[in-house]
Structure prediction request, 903 residues.
Amino acid sequence: MVQRVKGGLLVAVSLALAGCAASGSSAKSAGDAPAATAAKPVKFNKDPYPSTYRAYAGRATALRGVTVFDGEGNRFDNGVVLFADGKVQAVGGADTAIPADFDVIDGAGKFVTPGVVDIHSHLGDYPSPSVDAHDDGNEATSPTTPEVWSEHSVWPQDPGFSRALANGGVTSLQVLPGSANLMGGRSVTLKNVPARTVQGMKFPGAPYGLKMACGENPKRVYGSKGRAPSTRMGNFAVNRATWQRAAAYKKKMDEGKAVDRDLAMETLAGVLSGEILVNNHCYRADEMALVIDMSKEFGYKVSTFHHAVESYKIADILAKEGICSAMWADWWGFKMESYDSVNENIPLVYKAGACTIVHSDDANQIQRLNQETAKALKAGRRMGMQISDEQAWTWLSYNPAKALGIGDRTGSLKPGKMADVVLWNGNPFSAYTRPEKVWIDGALMFDAMDPKRRPVSDFELGQPGEGDVK
Amino acid sequence: MMRALLLSAAALIAVPAAAQDIVITNAKLVIGDGSAPIDGGTVVVRGGKVVAAGAGVAVPQGVERVDAQGRYVTPGIVAAFSRVGLVEVDAVSGTNDRSAPRTRFSAGLDIAPALNPMGSPVAVNRASGVTRAIVAPGSSSNLFAGQGAVVDLADDMDMVTRPRALQYVAFGEDGSAKAGGSRAATFLLFREQLLAARSYARNPAALAEWGNDAMIQRADADALVRVIDGTTPLFVRVDRAADIVNVLKLKDEFPALKLVLVGVTEGWLAAREIAAAKVPVVVSPLTDLPSSFEQLGATQSNAGRLKAAGIDVSVGVFDDDDAHKMGYVTQYAGNLVGLTRVPGASGMTWDQAFASISSVPAHTVGMDASIGSLRPGRAGDVVIWDNDPLELGSRPTAVWIDGKAQSLTTRQDRLRDRYATPQEGALPKAYDR
Prediction:
């Protein structure tokens, strides 16, 4: 319960698009290429806090004799995975040639998957210890705060990052603002590496996201303060008025007119131009359908509905609209809008042909998204659906990577992609299985066999249990 | 398939369950007492109780016979710490009887009349194989939260197996907040309330003489008297190693206290002291984050280390969804098995892990002679599983509680079936049932 409140659910709480964020400091205006006669458009730096992440050193490595789920629904028994220079080199069956200079790890009985990508985390902005001083996930002072950026709240020393790595095999994650606000601010996508600064964790070139929230949380938070919104219709009214302002701001920018820089409008204009991806916390089916219409009214696209407890009721609509659902396996009953949860939500969405993602929203569940997936998978099979283990793994890496706009770089084991790889000591859909080794961009960042390959945050240094197995 | 599910649900609803004499054969039989599973096992339930379980048990004639076809057959799961029955929807306050922050009473609170056996969480948890739970109140306005109960999750109106089965109190940071702001205040308030209760027990008239200066009210004193003399086990939430050691020392002044430690995140740092005091613990075993400064030493190896120190360890559901997801205890127990395969980590064998969600929790409330295992004389709480019960997503195919066959269909299943195909048909979904 403590985690839930902090994590974004109860109280303050708790598109095909790739490589859109400008690299370096030269930024383009949202509209791009104004007519030659227009006034010189104002250009604002779109990447003022650029990633300084660089892959750590790795060794050319061959994993042999393993069962491989490649993240795109394929499986290789007695397979081989090769990576070097931070990139996947080859994935195949037992006959895949292993270059002589590669380190060889024999993995009989073990499994290899792409690293898990969690599309919904609050690590860093609701870090451990969850003391008041760390309560940095909701700027609950206005129902619309698209001007805040979650990266400015992320504490890189959150011990939760290392747990997600060591126990969950998580190699990339999106850190979102909480759900107190209708428009909570920008998200940030991170590589799950320890770093001194958040810039040292930022996934290079990942697009920004905008966190939005429907339903109970915004209307409760602001209604209790005696201000709008206090109802669901109020939620929509405030959203629509804000989108209308954003559309006007974007029009000015597109026409090359001078604007007073407005950080909130800048984020929303980025959404309207398709550069910033909408991550919309929404539980109820009827509300999701209304949000879809609102997105059409103002010309943006919802990338992913988060929590999406009732996606199963409108899975056909979500499939048709090309919107992802990021879901839990079995969370329910903590509030009214989570009351109609079913254990088969995830497989029902998958069966309808809609984009299916398993997410955590929690510093504990991020450590076992593979287990949450296994429960959903079994529920689907009990209902008579035929879903293979390797198909289910798409829910954990490739689908979330695509939804985050990084699917061309991570989320599956394809030659040339980032070598974000987990070696599991058994089938990752078993309760008895744990990560044995985790590589990020080909660098060994966790090794269960080597206590020195176990990150210890500054906060934990010199404390009881420093460097313990956790 | 959907139609078949609905029909079977209707059949179970239509026929009131009655205790059956039943024999289950060809089982991969788990007794629940920490012993290894028995292939080809048999369980005999008569008059609502287990009369025999094991290999080579004689199969009585004229008794309904179920062939388990080699599947796991176990005692029903006992959730060692939960709030099942107290909550329908957490954020809907009228349905949430977990805590009573504005009451003038504390230790005297009794959750029994707050339990709702008809609530959907009872059915959902039953369908995940949980047949009994130890239910504790959340908090009151004072230090003591009140008296919990041992409950069954059967599909009937009588949920209470044993009322007032425990008293609950939080020390540590939560206790400080209740007692006035510090751990010193917690320990003093605890002591003063117990001493006042003891004085009251010796001279009930004293309470009236104390008047408005009384440390305690009659109902609370009555409950605490039973804590002092060891009649009611005292479940103490405590996490920091130093707090654990100090809580154990309470027995110096109140030697009959029957302590059960809950949480014990840093228990492994005080394992020697806990073992010496012979105090059982209830853990949420996957807690591994320093969520607070009293949990700095958190590790998933805590449970395994405590078990290795000879301490009775059971698995509860708290700091999590303590009302809706009792089924998590099987997942947690499975993870304890998984930890035995991680170099340097501590976990439990499968047999120990299963006992931590069956007989060991029953033992913490002194009820292992009546529930929590399939040893003769225990309640006929039996589950047949579709797979290894500690493995992810395994589900019961049949559940008996006190020998009565139980419905396993939930409101969630009905929603699932309604939307198996989401498109509306000739009539709206509201007509589809």
